[in-house]
Amino acid sequence: MGTSTDRSFSGQSLSPESRCLRHDVTLDDGQPLVEGIAQSTTFARSGVGTDPTHQYSRVSNPSVATLERTLGSLENAPPAVCFGTGLGAETALLLSLLKSGDHVVCGRSVYGGTTRLLQQLLSELDIETTFVDSSNTDEVQIALRPTTRLIFVETPANPTLGITDIGAIAQIAKLAGVPLAVDNTFLTPVLQQPLDLGADISIYSTTKFIDGHSVALGGAIVSRDEQLLERFRFIRKCTGGIQAPFNAWLTSNGIKTLPLRVKAQSQSAEQIAQWLSEHEGVETVAHPSLLTGEQRRIADRQHLGGHGAVVTFSIKGGYEAGCAFVQQLRLCTLVEHVGSVETLITHPASMTHADVPRDERLQAGISDGTLRLSVGLEPAEELIADIEQALASVGAEYAPAVAEVCCG
Ligand SMILES: Cc1ncc(COP(=O)(O)O)c(C=O)c1O
Q1: Enclosing domain of residue 265
Q2: pLDDT in tens, 131-182
Q3: N or C: the chain end with fewer CB closer than 10 Å?
Q4: Burial per residue of 169-187, b for 16 or more beta-carbon CB atoms within 10 angstroms, e otherwise
């Protein structure tokens, strides 16, 4: 570990690209360009009664602190608080703000693990949740109770990709005196800035786009409220959920290309979504770039230079066609994950939602043939060709002329 001089020259004016490359820190003579890993559980003291910055890695660690500074800086906030996983961050958030008898208003289309945590674990602690369509501000307003202590939303929604107006929900939250937390995993701070839009807390699974290379689990909470940050750090110290130094180091290296990656991936996703929307073998396609009307206006206002890399679509032929389709793909890898440099695909009916009763799954907008594509860095034309051959081989009808127009 070198000893960087924190010159923090006008962090405010640096671009996300420069912040991800840590240009707010100037290196001393002979210092390595890539910071070393502080792979140590504990840190020496020069004598009794000294108070070094880092003492024990369950509380803080230099490699974790580096990632926390970068993530905070990306949202013009103090250093983030990092956790071992995204769900670890969510658990700490909930334990920080809620006690027995409290109530949460949560978007219905959030990550399934968030729903499970609230429905199956927090409920055992007598913490009740009302799930609402968070794109409908009236539903959020009506769900509030005197005991509500948190509003939690994810936008774009997972996997339906509907948009929640963060500013409108933030106003409702402020009037009610309740903090608003936004799961910004799908867009990252590069494409959406929840705190600037009025939210109190941004929360992330850094396992996804922020690491971007499928090598490190992680989670983070970002806020500009020092009291909240202090509480999150306290809960982390109590529960032991801090991120491992090696994972923080990997993520700090992965994040260097985050702005370039998510913008390129979003652009390809837009191209692929448009192509899918014109294909006869495809029943439905969801991507914010295909929205119209008010939802489109909100998306254009909230999103910064791209609508994200995730495209959800359903092919004709139901469950069997969905399974057969994913087996025919060559460039798109079948996994339960999003946000990697490689293009990934999930068939929720046979994978993430296999245990969910069919009628519940359909109600959540996930049909038998629904597929979630996380577009990577392969050229869009090659991905379209791969999807096209897989659609053809499952017997769906297709129109090559459309592909030529859209890919051109
Ligand atoms: C939107 C979102 N939030 C949170 C999580 C949980 O993150 P982790 O897997 O790092 O615990 C996920 C995981 O897929 C996710 O997609």
Answers
A1: 258-407
A2: 999 999 999 999 999 999 999 999 999 888 889 999 999 999 999 999 999 9
A3: C
A4: bbebbeebebbbbbbbbbb
Same domain? For 253 and 265 the reply is: no
**pLDDT at residue 349, rounded to an integer:** 83
Residues lining ligand 1, judged by CB closer than 6 Å? 85-87, 111, 113, 154, 158, 183, 185-186, 205, 207-208, 217, 219
Last residue of a domain, one of 257, 281, 304: 257
160 close to 109: Cβ distance less than 8 angstroms:
yes
Would the pLDDT of 56 be above 90? yes
User: 299 and 222 share a domain?
Assistant: no
Q: Which atom of ligand 1 is nearest to the CA of 206?
A: 10
CA of 112 from ligand 1 middle (Å) equals 9
Rounded to whole angstroms, the Cα distance separating 230 from 217 reads 23
Minimal-distance CA residue to ligand 1 atom 14: 337
- Catalytic residue positions, numbered: 58, 111, 183, 208
* Count of the separate structural domains present in the chain: 2
Residue 206 lies in a domain: yes
pTM: 0.93
Rounded alpha-carbon distances, angstroms, from residue 204 to 78, 219, 241, 387: 16, 5, 14, 30
Helix (H, G, I), strand (E, B) or coil at 375: coil
**Same domain, yes or no, for 246 and 97?**
yes
Where does a domain end: 257, 276, 293?
257
- Each residue of 220-244: pLDDT tens digit? 999 999 999 999 999 999 999 999 9
209 in the same domain as 306: no
- Tell the residue nearest (CA) to atom 8 of ligand 1: 86
**For the domain that residue 338 is a member of, what is the CATH number?**
3.90.1150.10
Nearest CA to ligand 1 atom 9: 86
Residue 92 CA to ligand 1 center (angstroms) comes to 14
How many whole angstroms separate alpha carbon 352 and alpha carbon 357?
12
Closest-CA residue, ligand 1 atom 15, reads: 111
CA geometry: angle 289, 290, 293, nearest 5 deg: 100
Atom of ligand 1 nearest to the CA of 339: 16
